[in-house]
Amino acid sequence: MTTSPVTGTALSAADRYGTTEAQRDLAARTRAIAEEHFAPRSLEWEETGAFPEPNLRLLADAGILGTAVPVEYGGSGGSWLDSAVVLEEIGRTCYVTAMATLGELGVQSRAIAAFGSDELKADLLPRIARGEVVCSICITEADSGSDVGSIVTRAVPVDGGYRITGGKALISRLDVVDIMLVCTRFGTGEGRGVSDVGFIVVERDRPGVEVSDGHQTLGGERLFALTLTDVFVPERNVLVGAGGFKKMINAFNGQRCMNASISIGIAQGALDAAKARATERRQFGKPIADFQGLRWMLADCAIEIEAARALVHRAAWNGGKQFPNRYDAAVAKVFANEMSLRVTDRVLQIFGGHGFLRDLPAERYLRWARYGGLGGGTPQLLRDGIATELYRERPATS
Question: pLDDT tens, 167-176?
Fold first, then answer.
């Protein structure tokens, strides 16, 4: 008999990837907040590009934003599966808010908790749980995306810490960010690869930090560029030093599961809208939900959503409160990202000509779904990693 990493209760093989009563309650509380407060204003956040700070405040006040923060630092000490059920419910109603909460519920909070100094954890984690600190992770550069080994941002050691110079591109939340987890090279060498790559925490208000005007995205979230010019940070701000990128890869496995959870939420929201539309819309004297062709489209959507959810829950469950493994996370993310595009495309078709209109939800779900495969590892990159893992002996996960 297997034991749940969340509650310590015994689980059979049949239900080991299911959610506990506490997690179902967490999902229900999140859904209630999201439906009442996030859904009515989701189009507003898209059109204005504003950061949905009131939504994060609501989640913080409800004790949900601190799900990923350990209990000793003011959070609820939840597992990756706890974060997954929360992000699915937010993604179901508002893409911009889901992306705004991804860091607090995912890799930023958990990386600080896992790798940060005692001083960093004591300073940042309680404020993250209270919604007082917005975190951003800064990896992508103008000439490097998936190829982290080609980044040029560099932290040079000086008395008491480091001075960082470089730039980042396509970074979310920089208009409101308080701290940034910056991927950088350490030292003065001119090497390539990740042997000297790590992460360092940079406060937004440090001299030499400059944020550019943002770009509006297809989903409504805004992305920014970051310039770092001789920015001093103290030694305590090092999250993982030279060569520590390999540690962060494990954290990124969790981020991939969270990205996939948002994709599932988007698909589920689209399916819910399609079910209502198919019941209300009548053609040839009866609801279009009575036509077999449309019923089968709805059924295919449900099948794929359930499959994606099971894969994400498996990966998150196996990760517990540590980090999911590379194979589970990659399989879950690739399937969920691509599933979400298929489902939202079907849903737009079910809406018919009205699906092409901006004032009905179908086209918005399709736009929201497109980001999943662009962030956190592309399906192409992850498929290559999955194939690599196939040639290694891995422990059974099911």
Answer: 999 998 898 9
